[in-house]
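DM from R.C. (forwarded with permission)

"hey, sorry to bug you on a friday — could you get me a structure for this? deadline for the figure draft is monday and I only need the backbone to look sensible"
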Amino acid sequence: MTRALRSALLLSFAIAASSVSAQNPRVWLDTDLGPIILELDATLAPNTTGNFLTYVNEGFYDGLVFHRTIEDFVIQGGGFDREFVHRAPTHPAILSEAGNGLLNEPGAIAMALAGGNVNSAQAQFYINTAVNDFLDGDFTVFGHVVSGSNTVTAIEQLRTGVKSLSNGTFSDAPVSPPAIRRAVEIDGEGFPLMPLHTASWFDSANPGVGFNVEIANDASSGDGPLLIVYWYDFGEDRQIWMIGIAAFEYGATEVTLDMLIHPGIGDGVGFLMPPPVGEFEQWGTLTVRFNDCSSGQFSYSSPTHGEGSVSVSRLTLADGADCS
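My reply, with the result:
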């Protein structure tokens, strides 16, 4: 059994029907089933980390799927798109760093190999879901999952089978393989802003104060993403709305918006109906940071209201909102 599993980590190509640092860099895999955040070990696996980041930053992994999942073993990706068309690596194979002391244990990410050659790693990778110590010494581990273990488990537990296509037959393939929508290197030490943060958020210390957050592509230009924040304060005899919009790059861990205020009171201004944009005036800035998928820290600076911060929690839940 051990030998069979070990062989499964050789680079996955179509098989015949008869065959069976400073701060360590981090990467966000935005998958169909939720986020996975990886921390890479640039000290113990510098070449492998550099190779993986090259593929990430070139967009190579965007649109590729986890094409092989074996429960209590690994999930593997980085080689095929949703139609199981092979995407050829764009850089030469790298030398093995398998003797670096990092182990094939749950949550560890390592490189797949071709034909058992320890110096053949290119783009395909796998994430361990069990203790696979029989792989140590041959397969280079270069990082681990720091957030999104529930996503890894969801992928691991997908129903699988043999997928027969015109370009060959694939074993242990998910019936509905989840894609990596984007793979992004994270900028800074915080948690990256992601579409999953689109939700209503509340300040538990101040009833009636909350935020509606939306992260979406810029429909006007096709570029993106945009961060849109409504900040509302409903108190006695007042209904105050503020709005801010800012463009940013995926991978950012904080975004600062210029906030416009509408101090209006009366009909038509309520929780579900913010006032027309043209009625707002400049108020100050709001810096948005998230701790994870369910909490965050919003800091503000205003000439009229000074400086401060608000701790927020998610009010509306969505699939994958727990990214622990």
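R.C.: lifesaver. The longest strand covers residues 226-235.
me: no worries. Residues 284 and 302 are 4 Å apart (CA to CA).
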